[in-house]
Amino acid sequence: MSVDDTDRRILRHLQADPAQSMAALARRATVTEATASRRLERLRARGILRGQQAVIDWRKLGWEVEVSLRVTLDKTNPHAFDEFTAAARLVPEVIEIQSFLGRVDMRLQVIARDMAHYQQIYRSRILTLPHIADIEALMHIADIKRGEALPL
To answer: C-alpha distances in angstroms, 25 versus 12, 29, 48?
Structure first.
């Protein structure tokens, strides 16, 4: 699906400040409000713009620990991926699930209030997930670059 320079300009300014008014977005993108509104609606209809969301700093709400778990599944069961994914979705502290091709099958991003809380989550909720053959934990230390914005 192709987008033109005007679409990219609108998306770039929308990414920079998703809460801005339509008037401000149109002004920054150098188009009329009607054009900006029509273009955004078209981008939504085509599935390019899927929505807007609030980005919450969960650390400021008391979640101090972040761990990335690399999981290798027991692939002898043909339902391993589906059953693991369905169960992992039910763990509230799992904030992201990704699947991969290669030695590692899945990656879970897990948050916890502190190390004691993480240990409780790990033992009672993660290790009980089905079809785990191997698991490796990577403790998050710092964000060097975490971008949600595309280089438009």
So the answer is: 10, 6, 18
Three-state SS sequence of 38-65:
HHHHHHHHCCCCCCCCCCCCHHHHCCCE
Averaged over 92-108, what is the pLDDT?
96
Question: Can you state the angle between helices 33-45 and 5-16, rounded to 10 degrees?
Answer: 90
CA gap 19, 53 in Å, rounded: 10
DSSP state for residue 120 in the 8-state scheme: H
> Would you say 110 and 97 are in contact if contact means Cβ atoms under 8 Å apart?
no
| pLDDT(1) > 80 | no
Token pair 């029509």 is at which residue?
Answer: 38
